[in-house]
Design a protein that fits this description.
By secondary structure, the protein is an alpha/beta fold. The protein is built from 14 helices and 22 strands. A hairpin with a 5-residue loop joins β21 and β22. α1 runs parallel beside α5, α1 packs parallel to α8 and α12 crosses α14. It is globular.
């Protein structure tokens, strides 16, 4: 008989989404096992940066500086540069600035996005997960099958080195095992979307000379044009000598990678090709995120073009959303509707990002050839900025029509309004530097927080009593800063454990217990 272990949550997959889920669960005292069929050693960088929202979570986990400065220099600019070839003409440049330029100066986030490709990011997350006592990360452990009933899940796993079988009994199983993982497929959840939209090719190579053989200086992205249009981009991986070229579409890929490097450089240069990988760029969204006690997150739930940098971002947000809800159930105050809200909130947001990612990709590959693009930029200097979705979109999205947020009647954010800070229920609570040097975001991440702006005389004891009656953790925080009050708009703002606004108003409702019941999913 195979050995049997017991855990509260079994997580299939130790990529960024699975590791983020384990960290959030572990920090909330929920034991979990992460089963990963690989050995944890990444050889090719799929993801190249961490979004502003992802960095805000890293800040909460105490690893933000470690992630931000893992490889990228404080002084290297993070620009997007549009060129014919590396030694050819610079057609346009979107200036982003360096870490030292941007540090503490963003109005929408205390962190901002960071350059930390997955070959560096995953080990940092894994180290953090292992440091949290309730978390067990098991590499070389493949999920073979699982069954569930109304009381829990029983999974069969295999040690990929010894072939030894292991049975794990868990209350919940979360599939963070990627697009080709077993969890969603075994559940039989269909995919909606456009499907494959391009055949792309990644060339991962080493070349110290690549950064100095031209006059363009350092940048994060170089996008390349030929006579027909924009055909590829090169991303700096370590800020020194590692690079990843992504060819946007080639149905007959050069599996040596040599022709691509010759074309992008515009000359011969010394390099070592580490890996050449053709892959399908996809547009998919799972029709459901849950069946019973089995849930999915990340690439198991959606596949999107990496052009807008939203894939891992979306998955980590899903992990944080799910973790506090599972913890609330274990802590006894989460209501029966709480877990249902995971799909209701996260699936529409993922759908928006799938659409945004495909639209961003289509906009880039639809660009004209080098001469026409140069002329378009000369006529309208904002063209390069329009090709990169603003970072605020990934910091300030909203759970529209959430079943556990209380609408205040304000309309959904549209157009440019989506780029402005907002405390509308469902949004991630806005960042603002408060008097003690912290960000407002540093207040959130444990239980619920009621923020009282400039009106300490408002009696909030009914809400405190209601929360205590239901066992809901609630802290009251007073902020006496006019600028913060303007951003949050209402005098009272109730923020959830994941940092999203649950309710706001200028006075408590007459029935505080009903408000608490609503936001805890009862």
């Amino acid at each position: 008989m195979p050995q049997e272990d017991r855990t509260k949550v079994l997580i299939a997959g130790a990529g960024p989404v699975g590791l983020a889920l384990s960290i959030e669960l572990g920090l909330r005292g929920i034991d979990c096992i992460v089963a990963e069929r690989g050995d944890g050693k990444l050889r090719v960088p799929r993801m190249s940066s961490v979004s502003a929202r992802g960095m805000e979570f890293c800040r909460r986990w105490g690893i933000a500086d470690q992630v931000r400065y893992a490889v990228w220099s404080r002084t290297h600019p993070c620009d997007f540069v549009y060129v014919s070839t590396m030694v050819g003409e610079e057609l346009a440049r979107l200036k982003v600035g360096s870490y030292s330029d941007l540090e503490g100066k963003l109005d929408y986030s205390p962190e901002g996005a960071a350059t930390c490709p997955q070959i560096y990011f995953d080990p940092i997350l894994a180290e953090k997960a292992r440091s949290v006592p309730p978390v067990s990360v098991r590499y070389g452990t493949r999920l073979e099958s699982f069954e569930q009933d109304e009381t829990g899940v029983r999974a069969r796993l295999m040690d990929t080195e010894t072939g030894e079988e292991l049975s794990i009994a868990a209350d919940y199983l979360v599939g963070c095992d990627g697009a080709g993982g077993r969890v969603r497929r075994r559940l039989g959840i269909p995919l909606d979307g456009l499907g494959p939209i391009a055949t792309s090719v990644n060339v991962f190579f080493r070349s110290p000379d690549f950064a100095v053989m031209h006059d363009k200086g350092w940048a994060r992205f170089f996008r390349f044009f030929d006579d027909e249009g924009c055909w590829a981009e090169a991303i700096a991986i370590d800020g020194k000598e590692l690079w990843r070229l992504s060819v946007f579409h080639d149905p007959t890929p050069d599996l040596t990678g040599i022709s691509y490097l010759r074309k992008l450089a515009g000359c011969d240069f010394p390099y070592e090709i580490i890996d050449v990988s053709p892959w399908e760029r996809r547009d998919f969204l799972a029709r459901s995120y849950r069946q019973g006690r089995v849930l999915i997150a990340g690439d198991a739930a959606h596949e999107m073009s990496p052009t807008a940098g939203s894939g891992m971002h979306t998955g980590i947000c899903e992990s944080v959303n799910l973790a506090w809800k599972l913890a609330a159930l274990y802590d006894g105050w989460g209501g029966p509707r709480l877990l249902d809200s995971y799909e209701a909130e996260c699936r529409p947001v993922a759908g928006d990002y799938v659409n945004l990612s495909t639209a961003s990709f289509n906009a880039i590959v639809a660009l004209p050839g080098a001469t026409a693009f140069r002329n378009a930029v000369a006529a309208d200097s904002s063209v390069p900025r329009g090709l990169s979705p603003p970072a605020q979109l990934k910091a300030q999205f909203c759970y529209e029509e959430s079943p556990i947020c209380v609408s205040d009647g304000t309309p959904p954010l549209q157009g440019k309004a989506r780029l402005a800070p907002s405390a509308r229920p469902g949004t991630r609570a806005p960042h603002f530097w408060i008097a003690d040097g912290r960000s407002t975001l540093d207040l959130f991440g444990g239980g619920f927080v009621l923020v009282r702006f400039r009106t300490p005389d408002i009696d909030v004891e009914p809400l405190r009593t209601a929360a205590s009656t239901r066992g809901v953790p609630l802290a009251i925080v007073d902020i006496d800063q006019a600028e913060a009050a303007v951003i949050y708009e209402k005098r009272l703002v109730l923020v959830r454990p994941d940092g999203h606004v649950a309710w706001r108003g200028d006075a408590l409702p007459d029935d505080a217990v009903s408000l608490i019941d609503h936001v805890r999913g009862a």
